[in-house]
């Protein structure tokens, strides 16, 4: 399923984005390019399957690219999974540059690199919404790590209109890495290498260098995919061990 990123970008550039597409409204650059990355043939995009349209239908099955709000895929997954394998693709900004656009003049600032590095734990809250599908036959998850330029409008308040501003688009600049989760055992990759077993959610949070909420959801997902199990307690905290 791996493709050439530059070739996908060239293909996406010569195909107009969907402004009021069947599958998405005002399709963003990120979603548009990823469709060509996973399937270069535009005739296999936006294919009707029952009452829904799949982003891609090809020899790999159905590929749904969702840049946010994974919970919205539940009705589609219920309809698609009995018919085809379904791969849900979720992009993560491993490296992000931010550019600001003046909505009155259209002037764009020079991009500035964000110090935050995106990791797999940035998708945990979204993935948690699909937890009931992780053990379903045919369900696959894919994280695409990208360098992205985020375009934001100075249409908010304070600090030159940056507070409460709107995101205009996300432009993929390069592919950093890609991870596929095809089996339940693959989710063991969410266990931080430095984590010693048994562990608490707090220890997981420290080892993963993520917040406690993301750590708790990660542990729950690992438990649901049978990669960790509850093994006792330490004071008031639950203890888990790897399987």
Descriptive report:
The chain is α+β, with helices and mostly antiparallel strands and 243 residues long. Helix content is 22%, strand content 33%. It has six helices and nine strands; from the N terminus they run ααβββαββαββααββ. It has helices spanning 5-14, 29-38, 74-80, 124-128, 201-208, 212-224; strands at 45-49, 52-58, 61-65, 86-101, 112-113, 139-153, 166-181, 228-234, 237-242. The strands form two sheets. Strands 1, 2, 3, 4, 5, 6 and 7 form a seven-stranded mixed beta sheet that branches.
Gyration radius, rounded:
20 Å
Report mean pLDDT, rounded to a whole number.
Answer: 91
Apparent shape: globular
Order of helices and strands: HHEEEHEEHEEHHEE
Number of helices: 6
Low-pLDDT stretches are 20-26
The number of strands is 9
The major sheet is characterized as: 7 strands, mixed
How far do the termini sit from each other? 30 Å
Helical fraction: 10-25%
